[in-house]
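4.2 Preliminary Data

To establish feasibility before requesting continued support, the project team ran the inverse folding procedure on a target of 329 residues. The structure was first converted into the token representation described in Section 3, and no sequence information of any kind was made available to the design step. The complete token record follows.
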């Protein structure tokens, strides 16, 4: 159990929550002298600078020692968990609101600075002759700052990134190469793992005029609808993911002819292999912005002929896209 001085306790209870103040440059400079904190948290939780500012406010003018600590905020089944390591001591705090965990971190760190003996290694007990067996008991809570917070010495929960998630993405792109320059729209669903993802998508390419005969007024129109499957390896840089994907695309190429003699429509098979690279910025736990570039290698290149017009499907298509992704679970 951590013993908190009466003056410090009153100051903590009278202080606003960690999320209220905006950390200043002076707070960060001052914290560098008393607190060395390694802080890892989801994007929607308090930042390290905010916790440092609250720590300095709690310590105030009290004599304090330098504190070195490591903190990690995790979430599992909608419950947030703070794992705080100070020296040889580890504290775990759980709450349904991660702002409360920022409060708890600042309070525990300020106690460690003002009363370092509370976190000193406990002396080994002297051996006793023939100790009587004791019934196992639940560890006593170390501290409690609100009804929703209980500090317990328990194993660290598994990181949320270790659990697969699902996503839906809507994007638009521009393309050129095998077909005339144009735009398309794609809707895709994905299964996300920490270092991989699998996608299934459907894409509609807007109708474009491929050939035109001014003398006869005939036009050759092309429209493509296709489904795709991709597998990706996903390196990560904090909030940015960099998927490198390979896959295949299969669909129907619709060929339409408009001429003074009449209109006609036909279909032919479209097949292509794809290689793509993209950057995905997860600006929120449930939303991400994606920018991508893709190369399609045409596996079947038919020659399209109608009304005296001819079009040869090219070997490569280059595509650039921008999309929004919603993530679940």
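Position-by-position output of the design step:
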């Amino acid at each position: 159990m951590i013993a908190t001085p009466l003056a410090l306790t009153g100051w903590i209870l009278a202080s606003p929550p960690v999320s209220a103040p905006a950390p200043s440059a002076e707070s960060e400079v001052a914290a560098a002298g008393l607190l060395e904190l390694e802080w890892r948290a989801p994007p929607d939780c308090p930042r390290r600078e905010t916790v440092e500012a609250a720590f300095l406010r709690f310590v105030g003018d009290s004599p304090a020692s330098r504190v070195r600590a490591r903190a990690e905020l995790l979430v599992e089944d909608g419950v947030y968990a703070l794992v705080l390591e100070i020296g040889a001591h580890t504290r775990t705090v759980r709450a349904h609101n991660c702002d409360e965990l920022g409060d708890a971190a600042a309070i525990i760190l300020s106690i460690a600075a003002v009363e370092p003996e509370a976190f000193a290694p406990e002396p080994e007990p002297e051996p006793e002759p023939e100790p009587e067996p004791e019934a196992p008991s639940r560890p006593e809570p170390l501290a409690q700052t609100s009804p929703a917070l209980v500090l317990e010495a328990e194993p660290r929960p598994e990181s949320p990134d270790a659990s697969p998630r699902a996503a839906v993405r809507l994007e638009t792109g521009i393309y050129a190469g095998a077909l005339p320059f144009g735009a398309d729209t794609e809707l895709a669903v994905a299964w996300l793992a920490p270092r991989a993802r699998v996608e299934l998508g459907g894409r509609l390419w807007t109708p474009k005029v491929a050939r035109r005969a001014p003398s006869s007024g005939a036009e050759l129109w092309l429209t493509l609808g296709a489904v795709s499957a991709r597998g990706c390896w996903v390196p990560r840089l904090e909030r940015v993911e960099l998927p490198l994907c390979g896959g295949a695309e299969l669909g129907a190429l619709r060929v339409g002819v408009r001429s003074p003699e009449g209109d006609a429509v036909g279909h032919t098979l479209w097949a292509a292999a794809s290689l793509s690279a993209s950057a995905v910025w997860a600006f929120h736990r449930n939303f991400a912005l994606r920018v991508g570039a893709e190369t399609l290698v045409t596996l079947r290149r038919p020659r399209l002929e109608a009304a005296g017009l001819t079009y040869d499907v090219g070997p490569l298509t280059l595509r650039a896209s921008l999309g929004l992704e919603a993530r679940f679970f």
